[in-house]
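Check this.
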Amino acid sequence: MPLTPTHEIVRRAHADGTGVGAFNVLQLEHAEAIVTGAERADRPVVLQISENTVRYHGGLEPVALASLALARAAKTPVAVHLDHAENPDLVREAVELGLGSVMFDAARLPYEENVATTREVVDHCHRHGVWVEGELGEVGGKGGAHDPGVRTDPGEARAFVAATGVDALAVAVGSVHQMVTRDAVLDLELIARLRAAVDVPLVLHGSSGVPDPLLARAVAAGMTKVNVSTHLNKAFTGAVRGHLAAHPADVDPRRYLTPARVAVAEAVTHLLGVLDPR
């Protein structure tokens, strides 16, 4: 099927009050597993490529083109998204390569710089039909949207969205990146206040640390796009370790990457059902 624009997937979920899973791609096996999991769940999904992953691969183009090819061949709507880009040049490259959306992260800059830089990125992306996610943690640049203890103020969120023109907003409500335990505590009341304050979809980063029931309640309170990375990496690595422990003589990576891919696909199918249990 044709590549699905991110805005179609996220806006539909925003209107329906359901959640969209956005999962980070580290290499081809991740992308394949995420698409397989989405097809099994019969749900749309977003493949995300972070700036850290771009550095790992030495460039955006190889992993982006592979993800775009998988998205176009998928049996369910799949969008491809640039995640946590801090370099405007990388954003421009993503636009040229055909990604449908970008997340521009200037949250660590002082507020006025964050607004001005994000506005420039939004203007460029919108000229090319690309959807932009911004991030607002703490005004003054003291913390990003997912630093421990940081919370996004609804009034500041409303002003930021109006000043920048972003299409979605990542907010700080209690989640933290790279959690390997699922015991994060979200501020559901704040999510509801943020949902009422802005007219764009809200994005939850650091969702790997949030238990399933709380993820479902966060979506009910107003979250739309839910980003997951570490949880999938745990499943991937656990499957590799298990296979090698049982088969220590194996040297062909396909033998241990296959169960890793299966584990990630199963985790994606499960989480998509949590976020959109229709």
About this structure: The first strand starts at residue 20 and ends at 24.
